[in-house]
């Protein structure tokens, strides 16, 4: 289309009976650019902080596979994306000046030909969400690492994941993914992230605890070098170091590396080892065996088993069974459904370890219970059960 | 992803209703109208035979303009997600909400 001239603009003003004296001298002649109707452009409404991130040159990434809802990830946060409709038409115009900008620059052109780059009736809205990390553990659990001698590892036909692979498959920011890898004690073997199979992990832990016992080292001061020397012939050095990092706190004293062993985590692992061998245990029998099985100097406590084991105080004798929160569904409703299938009525104390991970920025355990459960009194204690009938 | 170097600042123009071309041809390349500002800074848009008065709004939540690199033309909640590039930021909008004032034309002045 031919560009409008000043004369044409003035003629239009006159026809419209607008007084040029009341207007700023510059006019923008708006036309639709060549790509305008193509739908290539869309708008994303930015939450606080994201604008500054973009201006600082950092990236935002949209992640999600075919069957997943898209999420937007900054370096360290994850957002759900939703389309918001307006009843208005939104036009995006490059190079369009505001009155302030025009006044500040008196030499601006008299006619500014602005091309509308695109238009839309809707835009993407963002809402901060929990990173979707359950898939991470599920991917790594496809092929847990069972040790260098395991025949399974010799075949290279199964899927293994590098950091880049995980970044493209997991709907979470890079920082959230790396943090979660640390939380689940994943380690990098040959450039791929792996989770240790539980049996192999216990084998490694036993090597270390037996060595601590035979050397009479204090649990708070286990020397890395000596461990690598003594155990290096039994297992790869990286694995020995990995198990120390997983079950101990690393520190340096006088230039040497030591580990303060984590009592709670070790006791918990021993409990899992005992519990996974049967459906249910007599509670008092279990407590006895458990205490005898942990390293000398460590004390077992039932609160170490939150999110790992479920106590039944209503049965005679009292029992304990394995129930791992990581094995439960990630979706809120599905999580509650499975919990109520396992047990009809829960006290808040019992259910909290199994719903704690569902709490987001604004949702507390109390809020979740209000939404997904119904409360009643049982023997003077407040209990929660399902809102819907469980078959 | 963000680009290296400063991001362009665009402006959003918000109009009521639909924008339709006078002729049935494509919008691309066609004129929308003239945008003026009064000395007080009020935007005035002349579109066809209408005058629209608006206001300049600083957006509480700025927008990023995303350009899709390949893939389906319209963004959708599910489906393969292509790579997007942030082309520009929008911190200001010109909001035209008032009813358009029709321009009563006489014989157009010869140019």
In short:
The complex is a heterodimer of chains A (391) and B (111). Chain A is of the alpha+beta class and 391 residues long.
State the main characteristics:
heterodimer; A: Arc Repressor Mutant, subunit A; 15 helices; 18 strands; elongated; B: 111 residues; mainly beta; 0% helix; globular
- C-alpha termini separation of chain A: 69 Å
Structural class, judged by helices and strands of chain A? alpha+beta
Residue runs with pLDDT of under 50 for 5 or more positions of chain A: none
Most extensive chain interface and residues per partner: A-B, 87 and 70 residues
Pfam families (chain B): Ctf8
Organism (chain B): Anthoscopus minutus
GO molecular function (chain B): DNA binding
Subcellular location (chain B): Nucleus
Structural summary, described in words:
- Chain B: It is found in: Nucleus.
- The complex is a heterodimer of chains A (391) and B (111).
- By secondary structure, chain A is of the alpha+beta class.
- Chain A has helices spanning 6-15, 50-55, 99-104, 134-140, 151-154, 163-169, 174-183, 198-215, 224-231, 237-247, 263-275, 283-293, 332-342, 348-351, 365-372, and strands at residues 27-32, 41-45, 61-63, 71-73, 78-94, 111-116, 118-128, 187-189, 192-194, 222-223, 248-253, 256-261, 281-282, 309-312, 319-322, 346-347, 373-378, 381-386.
- Chain A folds into four domains: 6-128, no CATH class; 133-195, no CATH class; 198-261, Arc Repressor Mutant, subunit A (Orthogonal Bundle); 328-390, Arc Repressor Mutant, subunit A (Orthogonal Bundle).
- In chain A, the strands form six sheets. A four-stranded antiparallel β-sheet of chain A has the order 3-4-5-7, with no helix packed on it. Chain A has a three-stranded antiparallel β-sheet with strand order 10-12-11. Chain A has a three-stranded antiparallel β-sheet with strand order 13-15-14.
- Chain B is mostly beta strands and 111 residues long.
- A four-stranded antiparallel β-sheet of chain B has the order 2-3-4-7, with no helix packed on it.
- Chain B has one domain (8-101).
- Helices cover 0% and strands 50% of the residues of chain B.
- The chains are: A alpha+beta (391), B mainly beta (111).
- The interface between A and B is large, with 87 and 70 residues.
- Strand 2 (41-45) of chain A pairs antiparallel with strand 5 of chain B.
């Amino acid at each position: 289309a031919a560009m409008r001239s000043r004369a044409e603009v003035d003629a239009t003003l006159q026809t419209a009976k607008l007084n040029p004296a009341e207007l700023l001298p510059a006019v923008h002649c708006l036309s639709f650019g060549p790509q305008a109707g193509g739908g290539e452009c869309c708008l994303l409404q930015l939450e606080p902080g994201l604008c500054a991130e973009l201006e600082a040159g950092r990236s935002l990434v949209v992640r999600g596979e075919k069957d997943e809802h898209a999420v937007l990830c900054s370096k360290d946060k994850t957002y759900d994306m939703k389309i918001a409709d307006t009843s208005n038409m939104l036009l995006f115009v490059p190079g369009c000046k505001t009155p302030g900008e025009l006044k500040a620059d008196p030499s601006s052109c008299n006619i500014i030909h602005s091309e509308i780059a695109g238009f839309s009736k809707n835009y993407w809205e963002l809402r901060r969400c929990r990173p979707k990390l359950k898939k991470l553990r599920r991917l790594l659990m496809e092929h847990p690492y069972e040790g260098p001698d395991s025949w399974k590892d010799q075949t290279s036909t199964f899927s293994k994941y590098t950091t880049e692979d995980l970044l493209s498959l997991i709907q979470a920011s890079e920082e959230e993914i790396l943090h979660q890898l640390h939380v689940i004690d994943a380690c990098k073997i040959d450039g791929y992230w792996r989770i240790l199979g539980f049996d192999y992990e216990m084998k490694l832990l036993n090597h270390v605890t037996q060595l601590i016992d035979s050397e009479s080292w204090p649990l708070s001061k286990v020397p890395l070098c000596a461990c690598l020397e003594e155990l290096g012939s039994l297992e790869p050095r990286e694995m020995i170091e990995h198990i120390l990092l997983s079950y101990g706190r690393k520190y340096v004293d006088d230039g040497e590396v030591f580990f303060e062993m984590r009592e709670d985590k070790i006791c918990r692992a021993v409990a899992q080892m005992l519990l996974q061998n049967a459906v249910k245990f007599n509670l008092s029998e279990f407590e006895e065996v458990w205490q005898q099985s942990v390293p000398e100097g460590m004390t077992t406590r039932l609160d170490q088993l939150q999110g790992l084991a479920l106590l039944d105080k209503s049965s005679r004798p009292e029992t304990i069974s394995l129930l791992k929160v990581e094995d439960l569904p990630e979706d809120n409703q599905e999580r509650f459904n499975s919990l109520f299938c396992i047990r009809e009525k829960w006290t808040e104390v019992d259910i909290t370890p199994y719903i704690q991970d569902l709490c987001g920025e604004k949702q507390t355990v109390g809020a979740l219970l209000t939404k997904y459960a119904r409360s009643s009194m049982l023997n003077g204690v407040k209990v929660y059960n399902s809102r819907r009938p469980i078959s | 992803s963000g680009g290296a170097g400063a991001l362009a600042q665009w402006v959003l123009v918000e109009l009521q209703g639909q924008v339709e071309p006078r002729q049935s041809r494509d919008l691309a390349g066609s004129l929308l109208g003239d945008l003026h500002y009064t000395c007080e800074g009020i935007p005035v848009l002349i579109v066809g035979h209408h005058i629209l008065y608006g206001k300049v709004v600083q957006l509480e939540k700025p927008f990023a303009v995303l350009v899709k690199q390949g893939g389906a033309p319209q963004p959708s909640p599910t489906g393969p997600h292509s790579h997007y590039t942030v082309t520009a930021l929008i911190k200001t909008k010109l909001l035209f909400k008032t009813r358009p004032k029709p321009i009563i034309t006489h014989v157009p002045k010869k140019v």
